[in-house]
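*** Protein under study ***
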Amino acid sequence: MKRFDLLTCCVCAAVLMSCDPESGRDSVPVPLDTPSGLTAEATENSILFSWDPVQDAKCYAYVLNDAEDEVFTNETSVTVADLQPETSYTFRVKAVSGDLSVWADSEWASTTVVTSEQPVPPFQLTVSDVTFHSANFKVIPLDENMTYFCNVILKDQFEQFASTDELVTQQIETIKEVAAANAMTFEAYCRTFELLNSGTNDFASTTLDADSEYVEFVFGLDYSGVATSDVVYEEFRTLEEPKVTPSDMTFEFEVTDITDISAKLAVRPSADDESYYCFFVNKENLDYLGEEYVINACLADLNDHISSSDYATVIDELCHKGDYVMPYGELEPDTEYVGFAFGVGQQGLKAAASTRLFVSDPFITNSPGGGDDPIRIEVINFGIERTEIKFIPSPEVDSYRCELVKLSDFGADKTDEEILAADMDNLWNDYADYYVMLLLYEEYTLTRINPLEPDTDYIAYAYGLSGSEFVATTPLCKKILRTPSAESSASASVRALLRGVR
């Protein structure tokens, strides 16, 4: 009996020792507790999973859905991002043992959660037509009746705000401060300067810096100064500023149709796809002022036009590509001139020279002309798109009338006397005693920029007409013309180059 009792005690002791986790390396590992308190907080594209800490756990392993690889963390929470809205996700987590001879990994704890619906933003904001200095924006509000404020700032400035709420606060406070400085209420200031908008609108910023990152933003704002929506914003980058590229383009010239007041300059550039500017210059001015001065005077004229329009429009109107014939009719008699041309390219918002100045051989205009007609008609340019006709009265003509119309307006086979009488009848019927407003007293260049009809005969005519009584004082002076084509234009500052140095 005593021997049996002793054996039984030994067996029981051995069993008890095998159940004690502190008993040694030959004992069976005990599983760690399964993580408890597993919760999930979902947004439209992320989920925050949290659980209670497990005693004796070295770390935790988790798996999302059916991922093969476990992810380990020392924390008791993890955020899974970049998820799809309105989608179900299953998350499993377990406690991981640091000594498998003592503790085994725990069982998995799991939960399933659905991400929330993606919120509809209060605005659709799009950025388009980005250049080196401008961009267009379109704002479409979810609520057509909501007033809103939009602005564009540098991305560096945008990122200085800790949150978009801070940005909104700063924008509102700035408006309030400026309104107060102008002794105006917030509403009065916003209405006066149209700071708030409603409905769908297109906006443009035209004074941006080149090659810079910007943020366009919009948020709901009422006339009491209270924000009524979250901020919606879009980032964009402006393009690099254009820089004029030096060109190898050269020019050949031919001056034709020289009179005492006019000439035509035929320009043949070596490149057909590059823009250039051409004109005439008094040879004396060129010698005295120099080629650089002439180029700068022309560029100043171009850039003055660009400042009230845009580069592409002005270059298209005032410069040329390929072969071109430029007529001009404001020259001085018995004066030496040269024609010139130089390449033009874009430098930022302005025009700049891409070549040096090229000049034609000098030529001298004829001595003053006249003829037998009391009013001289000099056709400078006659084309479908542009027409220039100069009328030069002789000293005995005090006042005169001139016009350009289709020859068919007077009917076929009309004599000069019949044309003059018909024009005076039309003039009196249209203006009566106010006809004097149409009279001219000095040289006049008639310019038509409205297109003329192609392959059509026109009549340019003039006659002396008294300003004190409605009678003609000269016979009819006329020229019959049929539409060719050309164009010419120059500013007063450039035309000054045609006058000799005094």
About this structure: Residues 1-25 have pLDDT under 50 and may be disordered. Residues 17 and 228 are 71 Å apart (CA to CA).
